[in-house]
Design brief:
Layout: E1 2-4, H1 11-14, H2 19-25, E2 31-33, H3 35-39, H4 44-47, H5 52-76, H6 79-94, H7 100-104
Parallel strand pairs: 1-2
Length: about 120
């Protein structure tokens, strides 16, 4: 395991990823933090509710976008990106509402709910 990388996920969520995403991220060491864990810092707010709509929304919207973010990391991985992700991770502990990742990584994949263009 490394400091920065694709965050390990439970098999229930991993199974939702497309085969392409699984193939790519399986080539990389998992990390303690990563771009998907920064973007979804408060992920529990999306599935804290036990109603079926919340779970379906997670499966239809969040999981696929997390996979897209992990692919972005794999394609853009570098020492500079890793250093910036460490800085963003630390800053998000002190300023949880920070969107520093959107400022530093302007080429992050867009999503209408979580990272609009």
């Amino acid at each position: 395991m490394s400091i920065i990388g694709c965050r390990p996920t439970v098999s229930e969520h991993y199974d939702i990823y497309t085969q392409d995403v699984k193939n790519v991220i399986s080539e990389y060491k998992p990390g303690l933090s990563g771009i998907a864990s920064i973007v979804f810092r408060n992920e529990e707010q999306y599935f804290i509710s036990k109603n079926p709509t919340a779970k379906k929304n997670y499966e239809d919207e969040i999981d696929p976008y997390k996979g897209t973010l992990e692919l972005w990391y794999c394609k853009n991985q570098s020492v500079i990106v890793d250093i910036l992700l460490i800085i963003i991770t630390i800053s998000s502990v002190f300023v949880p509402s920070s969107k520093l990742h959107n400022y530093l990584f302007r080429n992050l994949p867009n999503h209408p709910l979580f990272n609009p263009a």
